[in-house]
Amino acid sequence: MTTPLLEIDNVTYAYPNGPAALAGVSVRIAAGSKTALVGPNGAGKSTLLLMLNGMLRPASGTVRFDGRPLAYDTRSLRDLRRRVGFVFQNPDVQIIAPTVEADVAFGPVNLGLPPDAVRRAVRDALGYVGLHGYEKRPPHHLSGGEKKRVAIAGILAMEPAVLVFDEPTNTLDPASSEEVMELLDELASGGRTVLISTHDVELAYRWADSIILMERGSVLARGPPEEVFSDHGLLAAARLKPPALLDLYNELDLRGIVARGVPPKSVLEFTDRIERTLHGHVPARDETGTIYLCDADRTGGDAIRQLAEEGRVDHVGAMGTRAKEFANRERILLDYTYGVIDKCILKALIGENSLIITTGGMLDHVRHRIGEYSAESGRALAVTPVGEPGITGRCRERVAE
Ligand SMILES: Nc1ncnc2c1ncn2[C@@H]1O[C@H](COP(=O)(O)OP(=O)(O)OP(=O)(O)O)[C@@H](O)[C@H]1O
What we know:
Residues 6-241 form the ABC transporter domain. The chain is of the alpha/beta class.
């Protein structure tokens, strides 16, 4: 590993009148990584995360940020917290102001930014989490998912390099959880370092590129998810179950039923692996479906309704909050609200057409992901832009031949 951005070196900690919450923990976090701290209740995950921005101070051992040991005077802590943002498990702990706008502005105002810069920071952060239009609303009347987004916006407004999320999906419904995880992905792909704590192994397996497995205040293992989660002994010691997809893959691998390789992380990767095993290669199909792509910021609902009326679209998915708001406004029924790209690729592979509605940089992300899949699998998938000026639904754009 190159020089870690965050380093915890042999840290111990005990709460007053409590047993050891951290019993000599050493952990290194690389810049730009997506790390999940995984472990059962009481393993010490939150305690470890609270060390990272100085909210707790180790009884012994050292925490370093960017190569320097943390200092715990007020000024140093303020500087640190600007660079290492912390999103609490329960947003009610974090939200303090009477309106969404005032709450998100709290950090930038405290940093002493001039009013113009505060306004810009609030607008950008709310836009990022898809809460434009919520500025004047009282946060305590929002849904759990919306409150979580307000809390995230409040941290984003300070533009930290590291984002720490304690149990980011706790209490959220499955769709809201996936949306928050997609947001975390977006933040990581923008170059931020993201750490989460969770006991959801399925989520950690899919999302993280590095796992730190904890139990009783100690680190049991660290490494790539497919390695850590393939060790049943370790998981049992941490009172966890392996992720279903990986467990199934490992069982098929042991029986020699599926071609070896890096374990799959999604249904799409798994089905491809099985096809390769069955046929020796990914079979070419005469007819693949089309994936239509629509920019919700530049398209009216009519173009989409036209596609549906002409029977050209079998499934519709939306990525990102702005796109979902657009679909809601235009009364477009959504089949997919998360994992949208992979689901549409799976449908295209069996000859069905889908439409992905999204906005901004996500449009390029969709083209890139589908192009990448086409190149890897050798199956050319067509992406057809919809509704952009001068482009009709029939104008095809080949992303890979
Ligand atoms: N404020 C506190 N006061 C006293 N003991 C605490 C406090 N917070 C945590 N502990 C104890 O410290 C240990 C580690 O707790 P921690 O919250 O870090 O675990 P965790 O892995 O985050 O658990 P969970 O998944 O339940 O959030 C536990 O034994 C817990 O009871």
